[in-house]
Write a structure and sequence with these properties.
alpha+beta, 3-stranded antiparallel β-sheet, 3 strands
Amino acid sequence: MAKTIQTKILNYRVIIEKENYSDGTPVYTAFIPTLGITDYGPNIDKVLKSLKPGIELAIECLIEQGKEVPSDKVEQTIIVNTQVVVPKRLALAVSE
């Protein structure tokens, strides 16, 4: 009788921000808050692909240490940016 291998799919929220190197070249930084993993890449597809080994390693380490493997229960998160007008008297104290 063949043994059945069970798999489990875990969901993780990934926050991606586009930034620029000092020479203006774009770079995408991705962060998985639940696992504390961060990576970067030249585009969204590559940064998502580069996260997979880190996720797998984090899960493996947690299991080996006998710790619970967390996952996100939410399947979609919406993150938006908003603008706030800073009064002139405070504007110099705010870094960009």
